[in-house]
Amino acid sequence: MPLSAYLIMSALLFTIGVIGVLIRRNPLIIFMSIELMLNAVNLSFVALSHFLDSADGQMFVFLVLTVAAAEVVVGLALIVSIYRRRHNIDVDEMNIMRG
Amino acid sequence: MFFLSAVILFPLLGGLALLFFPREQVRAIRMTALGLALIELLLVLGLDLAYLQNSVSLFSSSFLHESWRWFPDLGINYSLGMDGISLVLVSLTALLTAICIGASFRIESKVKNYMAFMLLFESGMLGVFLASNLFLFYIFWEVMLIPAYFLLGTWGGERRIYAAFKFVIYTSVGSFLMLVGIIAIGYYHQLAAVAAGGTSCGYTLELSQLLNTSATCHGVLDGTTQLWLLLAFAAAFAVKVPLIPFHSWLPDAYSEAPAPVTALLAGAMSKTGVYGFLRLCIPLFPQAIHTLAPYINVLAVVGILYCAVLALMQTDLKRLLGYSSISHLGVIMLGLFSFTAQGMTGSVLQMVNHGITTAVLFLIAGFLEYRTGTRRLQDYGGLAARIPWLAVMMFIAALSSLGLPGLNSFTGEFLSLLGAFRANVTLGVLGTLVVVPAAWYMLRFFIGLMWGVPATEGAVSANLRKGGIRDLSLGELGVIIPLIILIFYIGVQPAVLTGIIDPSVANTMQVLSSAFVK
Amino acid sequence: MTFDIVSFIVLAVATTATALGVIAFKNAVHSALSLILTLLFLALFYLQLQAMFIAVVQILIYAGAIMVLFLFVVTMLAPDQNESDLKDAIPWQRIVGGLLGLVLVAALSYELFTGAQITGPKAAAGNSLTQAVTAYHGDTQAFGMALFHGFLFPFEVTSLLIIVAILGALVFGRRAN
Amino acid sequence: MTNLSLWVLLLPLLGFIILGLAGRFMPRTAILAVGWGACGLAFLCAAISFFSMLATPAAQRTSDQVVYHWISAGTFSLDFGLLLDPLSMTMLLVVTGVGLLIHIYSAGYMADDPSFWRFFAYLNFFIFAMVMLVIANNFLFLLVGWGLVGLASYLLIGFWYQRRSAVAAAQKAFVINVIGDFGLMLAIFLIFQGAGRLDYAGVLTHTFPAATATAIALLLFVACAAKSAQLPLYMWLPDAMEGPTPVSALIHAATMVTAGVYLVARAYPLFEQSPAALAVVAGIGGATALFAATIALFQLDIKRVLAYSTISQLGYMFMAEGVHNYSAGIFHLVTHAFFKALLFLGAGAVIHALAGEQDMRKMGGLWGRLRVTGLTFLIASLAISGIIPFAGFWSKDEILGSVLAYGNQTGNVWYYILWAIGILTAGMTAFYMFRLFFGIFAGDYRGASVAVNDNTNGDVEEQEAAAAGHHHAGPVRYNSIHDVAPVMSIPLIILAILSVIGGFIGSMALFGLPNWSPLANFLPAAMHNHAAEGSLTLEWISTGLSLLAGVLGIGMAWRLYGKGFAFKQNSNPLYQLVFHKYYVDEILNAVLIIPVLALSRTLSRYLEGDVLDGGSRGISTLFRGTSTFMRRVQTGYMRNYALGILLGVVVIIVYYAVRG
């Protein structure tokens, strides 16, 4: 399969992730959309690594993975603490830092 | 060797040391501040003597010069230099600061900060007069602005915030343009130097490099770049002088600031603007200054007459003195841009005279405001009988300010206007015409306060009914007497000052070569 | 050859569907599950691209560890509350978001189609150690060698990152006393 | 030749410093000792120098003594020096001599004034300034003297600074004098531009191009017109009568106002180089003489009559100088100093005797009571009217004679007209002087009887107020009037003697005596040898006519006011016009003062207030406006921020896509 197919796939996934972030108001869903975007990038990394026949791509996927893990951990902890204080989690409520 | 740095840094360190004093020991703070200022004055007088021993020009080797490398590859080094002109202005600044600190013993709130800012202000001005590297000049230019803002902003009158804000806006816009100019001149100079063969010439801001035509790395800038750079520099100095369209910060700043601060602002700080024109603009951009000089002269003459007419109908004491001060500075600028030896020596001499006379006038206005609490002219009247000594001192200062022949301002004004007349007859005549409105508003100022029938209502009459107004206290008299003596001395014997100034002016101006009329 | 294409298309459609599911489901748990499915399909993609190690890692860590954490949190946080009844403060947000998404896709695909066609393997530039190692067609041993030689430093950094993350979670997790 | 001019300069200065600093605490006798001492010694030094100058041959009579180097800037370098030559010697003698007499007189006149010491300090300062003006050896220090003299007159006019009218008069005098300084400064610039130096020796021998010479001469004349109260700039002198009478006598009659005449005489080589300027000098002199004499005809305040008379006589001096006869001008200056000072001091004695009353309508019949003052006043009146043996006759006729001769020599009809004006003015002078004399001394005493506001005319009230402003207790009873103390009458007598014999220092050629004019010979020949040498018959005609005019004037005055002054209000417009001094003050106010003040007020409100302040305030509101607009971008919704990021990404990608 040509490389561009995989790249289009990754672009598609990425876009879906972005739209998810923009549309949904539940932070968890936003989190998942971000994960989606990360994975889209992973896909393109792997595809390129495969087509360029170099392991660098996969290295990055590995790193992205760890970063994603760290991010999820902290993110979820944050959401839990916010939830404990406010009992409802809606992104639009959290606009104290308004200009 | 590091005499000049000592002169600049002493008040700075003194000011900082002052901050460690306990807040409530107000008397001790005042005394030490005055002591520091007097020691600084002695230091400067020592400098004068050192200079007079071997009266030198700006570039001769034995010229009192210090230079340490700071950013070598940017051509920026901590270099100070002094010649006759900066000597005179440095001495004026040191004297006025000592006197103004002496006159500030009535400031009650936050005395420690006040004194520290005054000393910082002094070191900023001294730095401006002594710096001979553009970068260092800019740093001291800003160091001078900050204490002025705080002095005006915290210890001023009711509208001090507005006045301070406007003051900073005007001055900083000007100085940022100057910064652009400074950066650009280094760059264009390098270009020109390389073009002129000196391939190894680097970016330099060292004044001696830029001005010294015989130096290996000297490039001559072409007309248009000179003009643009000159406009950048002129922006900062025109605001500080002030020239007419940029002067509207001055009346507010001078009337709202406490009297000793206004005396220092009017006496010394306004001279940095004119000094900037003289030391930087004219030597660095000879061709451009020629194309611009007629316009500046016209602005100066308009300023002279416009502010003199405005001063006629001012009701606020300090505002009136502010406008009169702009008018005098107009005469100084007219003399400077006449490019004649008499005009330029006269303008430097007039800088000193104006510094002395305005300082006395503002201090007296401050004493009056302290006694009666009002600055409106209509409230006053007929005080000469009650406060004779203050009336006499004010009369002498008023006479000096209106240019009475025989006192100090006459000598400077006469030379400046003579130079202006020789350069351009119509502007010379219009400039000299200021003598008439000047006499009119100065007399109206003096008569309004001291002669005539005492006012029946208003703050002054209340004081008169309550307990009368005290005459000059010993401290106040001691503060003014040195200046009054100088007013008489320079009036009778100006040769002392012109002897110092004239060779330096001739030296600074040889870059104009043919244009400079002896 | 056709098997590749067919499998690719099937996988592509499936992944897209589940990805849309993630953002479409009202209920957070459903979107979490659909995300897990997306991850699995991606792992298959990786297999198709002969990135064995990455595929396994993907399933093990991503699908396994991270998504479990997700599910745990999602179920804990009042799954029944769905957001549709809440008034959307900035309605225009959705429309603009959608539009921008479409523009993004169009631009990317246009770029991909017209861009240089990268079909065959190309000699990797530079003299990174990984280039010598991939002579073994990208299998796990090569991956290990590359990881611990070329990318040792980033590897250590990530370990530091994870420690920090754990501390962060601890701090936020503490019950406000 | 012993030259004590430096002492003549420094002694009054010393007197001023002592009195200025310590005068307040000194007893009256000590004040007088210092005051009289300083001025007396100065006069003594002047006399010594004068006699030693007489002893030296005419050629070496000038001594130029450099005191110290004053200033140097580029090619401009100047030393302060003193020049003692016959001209400055004459002026020195007049200044210090009359000054001394007035010092003595003031001791009596100002006896009851609380700030007695301040008066003598200012007098000494004035004499120092006048001496500086007269013996400076370069134009710059002439300007310094010019300014200081203006300051002295300001201080002395505004001596009673509590009175609003005195303060206004002082300010007006100073500002108009500064206009003179302005003219002098421009002249000095032109001189330096042309000759490259400012000292008399260098400048007066330098020949300027015609145009510059005329410009310099005219500018110098502007200064003279301001200082000597000639036509365009004379209005400060009548108001200067607000000052104490000795001041009027010294400054506004004898010395300061003659500074202009001295300047023209000093700079005569410049004036000789431009005949046009001389014509202007003569013309303005004549016009002022006539103009001032007409106003003096109807004045009620005795000091204002004398003030206008001074302006008129100064006009005569400038007329003389206009026809190249500078020594005649100086001669009239000297004689005028004697009899005008005497007239003022006499008037002062009258005012002193009537406790401050200055209005003619409340005097009369004082001949019986003030015998000495009356006699000396009569002598002075005769002198000023140009009656035969008295000083005024000789000096005035020399002027009129040379004007007529000059007209005859050049055949220019204008000089005949000028001569006719001279004769007419001589007649008018005689008339108003004797109107004044009879008003004060003849008829019966109108002091107590006349109620203050018996007449309706508004502006007479204004004159009343001005006169009444002078702090006087109210009309004095007739028989309680007594003549002044000897300290005041001795100067009167001395001046009277001088007014009689003063004329004989002038030319006596008229009566066949050999050309025996000590003053003309004493002054440098060049000051009068350009003047026209008219034939003896012409001399006889002009002298005869001027004598006739004088006698006629006295006769008319005798007929109208012989039996005492009766103020008749008549309403014909011409009379009103002259009575109100041609409304000059009102015109000056309307044309110059009010418009300038209005301009200043509007400028400061609109240009300064709205445009400049508004401008800076406008800029700050501009910045505030943009910042509030920018603030709305921070909505607080996280999704908006995400949208922002996406927008950025999309733009970049589209850019690259389009760029291709």
Automatic annotation (TrEMBL), chain A:
Known EC number: 7.1.1.-
Catalytic activity field: a quinone + NADH + 5 H(+)(in) = a quinol + NAD(+) + 4 H(+)(out)
Any single Gene Ontology cellular-component annotation: NADH dehydrogenase complex
GO molecular function, one term: NADH dehydrogenase (quinone) (non-electrogenic) activity
Gene Ontology process terms (BP): ATP synthesis coupled electron transport
Membrane spanning stretches: 6-23, 28-48, 60-83
Membrane topology note: Multi-pass membrane protein
The UniProt record lists the keyword Transmembrane helix: yes
Main localization (coarse): membrane
Compartments where found: Cell membrane; Membrane
Family classification: Belongs to the complex I subunit 4L family.
Subunit structure: NDH-1 is composed of 14 different subunits. Subunits NuoA, H, J, K, L, M, N constitute the membrane sector of the complex.
Function: NDH-1 shuttles electrons from NADH, via FMN and iron-sulfur (Fe-S) centers, to quinones in the respiratory chain. The immediate electron acceptor for the enzyme in this species is believed to be ubiquinone. Couples the redox reaction to proton translocation (for every two electrons transferred, four hydrogen ions are translocated across the cytoplasmic membrane), and thus conserves the redox energy in a proton gradient.
Name of the featured protein: NADH-quinone oxidoreductase subunit K
From TrEMBL, chain B:
Keyword vocabulary terms for this entry: Membrane, Transmembrane, Transmembrane helix, Ubiquinone
Pfam families, per the entry: Proton_antipo_M (PF00361)
BP terms from Gene Ontology: ATP synthesis coupled electron transport; electron transport coupled proton transport
Ranges annotated as spanning the membrane: 6-21, 33-52, 84-107, 114-132, 167-188, 228-250, 292-313, 320-339, 351-368, 389-407, 427-453, 474-492
Localization of this protein: Endomembrane system; Membrane
Membrane topology of the entry: Multi-pass membrane protein
Gene Ontology cellular-component annotations: endomembrane system; membrane
Domain NADH:quinone oxidoreductase/Mrp antiporter transmembrane: 131-430
Single GO MF annotation: NADH dehydrogenase (ubiquinone) activity
KW Membrane (keyword) present: yes
Family according to the record: Belongs to the complex I subunit 4 family.
Entries under PANTHER family matching the protein: NADH-UBIQUINONE OXIDOREDUCTASE CHAIN 4
Name of the protein described by the UniProt record: NADH:ubiquinone oxidoreductase subunit M
From TrEMBL, chain C:
Location relative to the cell: Cell membrane
Gene Ontology CC, one term: plasma membrane
Major location (coarse): membrane
Record membrane topology: Multi-pass membrane protein
Key words, A-Z: Cell membrane, Membrane, NAD, Quinone, Transmembrane, Transmembrane helix
InterPro entries membership: NADH_UbQ/plastoQ_OxRdtase_su6, Nuo/plastoQ_OxRdtase_6_NuoJ
Transmembrane portions of the chain: 6-25, 32-49, 55-74, 95-113, 151-172
The keyword Heme appears for this protein: no
EC number annotated for this UniProt entry: 7.1.1.-
Catalytic activity: a quinone + NADH + 5 H(+)(in) = a quinol + NAD(+) + 4 H(+)(out)
Gene Ontology MF annotations: NADH dehydrogenase (ubiquinone) activity; quinone binding
Residue ranges the record marks as coiled coil: none
Membership in a protein family: Belongs to the complex I subunit 6 family.
Function, as annotated: NDH-1 shuttles electrons from NADH, via FMN and iron-sulfur (Fe-S) centers, to quinones in the respiratory chain. Couples the redox reaction to proton translocation (for every two electrons transferred, four hydrogen ions are translocated across the cytoplasmic membrane), and thus conserves the redox energy in a proton gradient.
Record-given protein name: NADH-quinone oxidoreductase subunit J
Originating species: Dictyobacter vulcani
Highest classification ranks of the organism: Bacteria, Bacillati, Chloroflexota, Ktedonobacteria, Ktedonobacterales
TrEMBL record, chain D:
Protein name: NADH-quinone oxidoreductase subunit L
Residues that span the membrane, as ranges: 30-54, 90-109, 116-135, 141-161, 173-195, 207-226, 247-265, 277-298, 305-324, 330-354, 375-394, 414-438, 492-513, 540-561, 640-658
A GO CC annotation given for this chain: membrane
Keyword Transferase: no
Matches recorded under Gene3D superfamilies: 1.20.5.2700
Organism annotation: Dictyobacter vulcani
Domain NADH:quinone oxidoreductase/Mrp antiporter transmembrane per the UniProt entry, residue ranges: 136-411
Residue ranges annotated for the NADH-Ubiquinone oxidoreductase (complex I) chain 5 N-terminal domain, each copy included: 70-120
Keywords for the protein's UniProt record, in alphabetical order: Membrane, Transmembrane, Transmembrane helix
Family annotation (Pfam families): Proton_antipo_M, Proton_antipo_N
Lineage: Bacteria, Bacillati, Chloroflexota, Ktedonobacteria, Ktedonobacterales
Protein topology in the membrane: Multi-pass membrane protein
Gene Ontology MF terms: NADH dehydrogenase (ubiquinone) activity; NADH dehydrogenase activity
Subcellular location: Endomembrane system; Membrane
A GO BP entry: electron transport coupled proton transport
